[in-house]
Amino acid sequence: MRILLALIIACVSLPALAQQRNAYEIDLSGIDAAMVLAGAEDVMLRASDRDMDGVYQAVLHAAGTDGEAQLLCALFEPSADRSLTGLQRVANGLGPDSRARFADAAVAVALAGMQNPPQPYDPEYAAQVLRRAGVTAMLVHDGFTAGMAATGDDPGSREARCRSFRQLVGVMQDFELAERAAATRYLLLEGMTRYGTEL
Length: 199
What we know:
Blueprint: H1 2-11, H2 14-20, H3 33-46, H4 49-63, H5 66-73, H6 84-93, H7 96-115, H8 123-140, H9 144-149, H10 155-171, H11 177-195
């Protein structure tokens, strides 16, 4: 959730992202996080399943690279800096291709959020998709559950959490597009509720 929460800021900051699509760095310094979060839920509920899947695909791509996955996973650490400055630091540590994927996904979600009517959304169904993904990852990957439960700030806990995160993201690529979209929308909305104050 904390990784995906970073995208909320981007998703409703369309002008800044459009200008930065091909830029070397992402700059969130001029964004009012409170104002952005106030309208973000409506944007998330209006984006299409395909737009939501674009967000998932950007995370999947970044999680597939060791260095970039470590950057994303650093946001899971208990002492992580999840302020706008911290999120910006992580975003700019990603490779140009990953930054472009995240920017493209965010722009698509923002445009859809301004143009589309509210989309069908069932949070209970989305939560079921996530539970099924967790069960699948548990059956396929040894140590998945232990990694998801790891709370320490030591290297072993960090590595276990990151490995489980990558495994969970990985198994979802075999799910239907609508399922991935529902799970992604759920995580973004939950992230706003649980972690928005850290911005």
